[in-house]
């Protein structure tokens, strides 16, 4: 029982030397987790609350020269439909993207 607790403690606190087989196993396990973990585990749940869970959505990054008035959803929706080629695209949300100086760099437009 003492050997098992020691092993668990060493694994948890990463106490193995770099040139041991235990170190290699831990690194392989981390790589397996990185490459095989579902993408949904790393997405923010806030965005899923805003959009309906059953509808596929995407986000477009649009330059400020393409949008005259971000509040005018009708003209924005027409422009998004023309850009994407999707006649049934619906604008869900528009967010302004600012650069470090505070100037408008573009807009993130969520569509479904």
| Strand content range | 15-25%
Structural class, from secondary structure content?
alpha+beta
**Biggest sheet architecture:** 3 strands, antiparallel
Spans of 5+ residues with little confidence (pLDDT < 50)?
48-54
Mean pLDDT: 81
Q: What's the domain count?
A: 2
Distance from first to last alpha carbon: 56 Å
List how many beta strands DSSP finds: 3
How many helices?
A: 4
Give a verbal description of the structure.
The chain has 112 residues and is an alpha+beta fold. The protein has 2 domains: 2-37, no CATH class; 47-111. It has 4 helices and 3 strands, in the order αααβαββ. The protein has a 3-stranded antiparallel beta sheet with strand order 1-3-2, covered by helices on one side. A hairpin with a 5-residue loop joins β2 and β3. It is elongated and about 70 Å long. It starts with a helix and ends with a strand.
């Amino acid at each position: 029982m003492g050997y098992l607790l020691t092993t668990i403690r060493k694994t948890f606190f990463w106490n193995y030397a770099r040139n041991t087989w235990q170190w290699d196993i831990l690194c392989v396990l981390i790589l397996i987790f990185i490459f095989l973990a579902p993408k949904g585990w790393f997405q923010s749940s806030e965005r899923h609350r805003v959009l309906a869970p059953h509808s596929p959505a995407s986000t477009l990054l649009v330059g400020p020269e393409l949008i005259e008035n971000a509040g005018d959803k009708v003209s924005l929706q027409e422009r998004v439909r023309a850009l994407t080629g999707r006649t049934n695209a619906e604008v869900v949300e528009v967010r302004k993207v600012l650069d470090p100086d505070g100037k408008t760099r573009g807009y993130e437009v969520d569509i479904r």
